[in-house]
Backbone:
């Protein structure tokens, strides 16, 4: 038993990698489809958008790149579907240069589903350098910060931006962030100064760090990781890649939990021996 | 006669009861320039009345000058709304009394308001088929030069600056301030000794930030101390970089460290080298270095993002001793699980001060500690006062609590 | 030269730092115009900083090729990659799609950039499993608490865990909203104090390492 435990404690990590790969792949091939529970912080975002009148201005900042696509793109798709269904005017932009193609692709796909027209129902402004300076520039005059959108169309006189001079005219804003140049920056340089309501969408790793902002009311809602995206898809009644991915995530978590429990069993089995096991 | 008098009395009395009482005009109505704003806005204040209700409406009428010209209606709302909200203004900058009606009237397309021009405002109160006008109030909008609601914020900034400068000055006079020993620092010597014995290099990473970030500055300071020890033991030091400016700074720091250790001949120019600024390209390159050259000790100091686990897990697979220090709290779980020692948050700043004993760093740490002590005291005091205020249903403690609030 | 490298940058830092620290307290439109103006300058400078990064990369790899250091062939591959991306980008005028059809630039983005970045990020899933297996052992009381909390949160954040042990959902929510928030707040306060202190030192010229020199004089 102890020899077995010793062997298992020092198991080749590639076996663990194989188990994780199996846990991720198999549920994708054979989903088991469990119900998704919705958390209050995700519901807060949904409820706020539900209450917005038609043609309200909704700004989404796609502050992520392809590496965070699996977690944040489903959030973006779900939010856009909700916004288009509510006939909101959607303005998109990004602080991450490498995320522009991704963000434009998401807009195009979601808009096509609802027959929304670029320039009339939504606009993707693209990327501009500056980070916090860009937010301040948008807060003073949106048209100076973005004289044209991602497809080089002049932004002034665009029907979707009618009555929108700067960030003070935005009714609701959400930053989908994978790291720095994200939610904190939008709060410090944006909401604190220009007083629009905002929420956050983040990867699973950085979401726990944003709970202080949520609890203090600096953001009114938080969508965390793939789980958060799945909750939002459940709320809008349109399941997508997030709900599909939750089965794989469930299986992977269970495999890690079993591995951790086994590791501790082996550890305690060997603990009685002289010296600590490696 | 008597019967007629009684009848007359009943009739007039009945008439009196039947006729409704006249609607009182709003009490204490006045207009003023909206305080602490960028101009083009007026504020209106009037006293609340116990008979304010949703059946009674208030209309705001505004005209130019002293009211000789035409008035325009700009707002219409129920009388039991638009009160000054508690906590909206600090006690030292309140435009109205607690419980009063307060309404901000910004410039709009319907009625533009310009700075420096006088305007006349009046209220029309209606209930049923009764209505009454208030007196005409006059005000001129102006842009303010200072936001008095934020004077507490400015005071704290100035106080903290003063404390910081005083701490640095005190540390310059006496740099031997007692600093708590950080556990991970004992392991630095162990790590360097292990590398020397095994004849393998030491890998030192300064993180993802640039030179304007606190953790990067701390990382470069610790690098200086590590480089001094490395120079004495003649071990190989490798420092791959993501930022060219950080690389330039580290080159000078390492060179100086070797000179101070009395080993300028042992210094290698290419110990600091630039890889790329792209996150995962850098990570792939460093992982390759770890797998090929198998350093005996890895130091991860500075700020990190998603690449942290990729770096530390690869390092762990090569059997290196790993010491990490970061204020990136979202990466701390990964460092804690994969590294032998982790300096958490401010322990990184403290480590750089502890190792170098530079008066500026030691003094800054002291100043920050005073700041934190103040915040902790304010938290305890504020929570206690707010709780007592709720229990005894009194707002008198708001005079203290307002000092710690952030007003716009 | 010393004046341009030391005194002038320190003077600019001091004046601009004080001016824009005070700007926060001044609501007057002139203050707002000043910050708008400076924001535009910062955007322009940020654009040039990108060029600086590319120029550094070119220089470093040119030196590697010239000296023929081990692995210099990969520097050629880097140059090739940069030039192909730039050429393709100019050819497609920077667009990933034109009239619904994907450009070559879009192809490079969708079929090279996205999978490569995604792959690197996805390695984390495997690494966290092996790290957890190695590190989540109940060696001490604190380690046991960490282990139990980790298992509860892992269960509570996925539908299967919520199905098997429904109470893990509520405990997870409590852990995230109460314990986690409190600890993060504490770390945030500490880190923010550090940032404020550094900013003050930079504005007042006490901290000069950002100028590229060594110790402060």
Residues:
């Amino acid at each position: 038993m102890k020899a077995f435990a010793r062997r298992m404690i020092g198991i080749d990590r590639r076996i663990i990698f194989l188990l994780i790969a199996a846990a991720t792949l198999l549920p994708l091939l054979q989903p088991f489809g469990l119900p998704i529970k919705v958390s209050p912080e995700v519901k807060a975002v949904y409820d706020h958008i539900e209450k917005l009148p038609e043609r309200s201005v909704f700004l989404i900042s796609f502050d992520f790149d392809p590496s965070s696509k699996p977690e944040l793109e489903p959030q973006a798709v779900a939010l856009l579907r909700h916004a288009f269904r509510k006939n909101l005017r959607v303005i998109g932009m990004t602080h991450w240069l490498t995320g522009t193609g991704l963000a434009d692709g998401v807009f195009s796909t979601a808009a096509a589903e609802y027959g929304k027209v670029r320039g009339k129902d939504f606009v993707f402004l693209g990327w501009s350098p500056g980070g916090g300076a860009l937010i301040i520039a948008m807060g003073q005059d949106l048209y100076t910060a973005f004289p044209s959108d991602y497809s080089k169309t002049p932004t002034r006189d665009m029907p979707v931006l009618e009555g929108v001079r700067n960030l003070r005219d935005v009714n609701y804003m959400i930053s989908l962030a994978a790291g720095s140049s994200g939610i904190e920056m939008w709060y410090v340089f944006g909401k604190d100064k220009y007083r629009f309501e905002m929420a956050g969408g983040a990867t699973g790793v950085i979401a726990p760090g944003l709970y202080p902002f949520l609890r203090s009311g600096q953001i009114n809602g938080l969508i965390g990781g793939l789980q958060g995206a799945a909750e939002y898809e459940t709320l809008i009644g349109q399941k997508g890649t997030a709900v599909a991915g939750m089965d794989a995530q469930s299986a992977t978590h269970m495999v890690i939990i079993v591995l951790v429990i086994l590791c501790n069993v082996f550890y305690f089995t060997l603990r009685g021996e002289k010296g600590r096991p490696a | 006669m008597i019967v007629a008098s009684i009848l007359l009395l009943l009739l007039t009395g009945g008439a009196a009861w039947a006729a409704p009482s006249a609607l009182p005009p709003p009490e204490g109505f006045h207009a003023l320039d909206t305080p602490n704003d960028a101009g083009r806005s007026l504020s209106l204040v009037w006293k609340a009345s116990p008979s304010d209700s949703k059946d009674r409406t208030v209309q705001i009428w505004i005209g130019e000058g002293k009211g000789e010209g035409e008035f325009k209606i700009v707002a219409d709302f129920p009388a039991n709304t638009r009160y000054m909200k508690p906590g909206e203004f600090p006690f030292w900058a309140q435009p109205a009394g607690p419980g009063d009606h307060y309404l901000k009237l910004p410039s709009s397309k319907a009625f533009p308001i310009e700075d420096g021009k006088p305007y006349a405002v009046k209220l029309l109160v209606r209930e049923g088929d009764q209505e009454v006008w208030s007196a005409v109030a006059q005000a001129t909008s102006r842009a303010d030069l200072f936001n008095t609601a934020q004077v507490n914020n400015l005071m704290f900034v100035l106080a903290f600056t003063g404390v910081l400068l005083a701490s640095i000055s005190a540390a310059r006079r006496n740099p031997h301030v007692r600093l708590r020993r950080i556990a991970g620092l004992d392991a630095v010597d162990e790590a360097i000794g292990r590398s020397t014995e095994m004849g393998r290099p030491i890998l030192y990473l300064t993180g993802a930030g640039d030179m304007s970030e606190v953790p990067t500055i701390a990382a470069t300071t610790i690098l200086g101390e590590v480089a001094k020890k490395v120079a004495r033991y003649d071990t190989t030091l490798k420092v791959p970089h993501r930022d060219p400016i950080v690389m330039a700074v580290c080159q000078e720091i390492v060179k100086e460290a070797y000179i101070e250790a009395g080993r300028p001949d042992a210094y290698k120019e290419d110990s600091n080298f630039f890889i790329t600024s792209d996150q995962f390209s850098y990570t792939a390159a460093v992982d390759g270095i770890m797998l090929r050259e198998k350093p005996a000790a890895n130091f991860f100091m500075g700020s990190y993002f998603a690449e942290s686990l990729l770096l530390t897990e690869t390092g762990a697979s090569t059997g290196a001793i790993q010491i990490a220090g970061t204020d990136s709290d979202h990466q701390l779980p990964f460092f804690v699980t994969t590294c032998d020692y982790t300096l958490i948050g401010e322990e990184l700043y403290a480590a750089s001060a502890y190792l170098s004993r530079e008066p500026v760093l030691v003094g800054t740490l002291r100043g920050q500690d005073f700041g934190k002590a103040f915040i902790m005291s304010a938290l305890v005091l504020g929570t206690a006062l707010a709780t007592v205020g709720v229990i005894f249903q009194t707002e008198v403690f708001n005079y203290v609590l307002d000092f710690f609030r952030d007003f716009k | 030269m010393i004046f341009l490298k030391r005194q002038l940058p320190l003077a600019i830092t001091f004046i601009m730092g004080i001016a824009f620290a005070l700007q926060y307290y001044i609501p007057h439109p002139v203050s707002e115009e000043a910050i708008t103006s400076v924001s535009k300058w910062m955007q322009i400078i940020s654009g040039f900083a990108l060029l600086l990064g590319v120029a550094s990369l070119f220089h470093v790899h040119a030196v590697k090729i010239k000296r023929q250091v081990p692995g210099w062939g990969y520097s050629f591959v880097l140059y090739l990659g940069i030039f192909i991306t730039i050429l393709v980008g100019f050819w497609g005028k920077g667009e990933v799609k034109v009239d619904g059809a994907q450009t070559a630039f879009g192809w490079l983005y969708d079929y090279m950039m996205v999978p490569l970045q995604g792959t690197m990020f996805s390695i984390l899933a495997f690494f966290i499993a092996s790290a957890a297996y190695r590190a989540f052992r109940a060696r001490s009381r604190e380690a046991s608490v960490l282990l139990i909390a980790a298992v509860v949160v892992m269960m509570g954040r996925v539908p299967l865990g919520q199905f098997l042990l429904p109470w893990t959902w509520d405990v997870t929510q409590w852990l995230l909203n109460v314990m986690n928030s409190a600890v993060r707040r504490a770390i945030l306060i500490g880190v923010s104090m550090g940032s404020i202190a550094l900013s003050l030192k930079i504005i007042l010229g006490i901290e000069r390492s950002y100028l590229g020199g060594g110790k402060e004089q």
Notes: Chain C touches chain B through 52 residues (CB under 8 Å). The two ends of chain C are 16 Å apart (CA to CA).
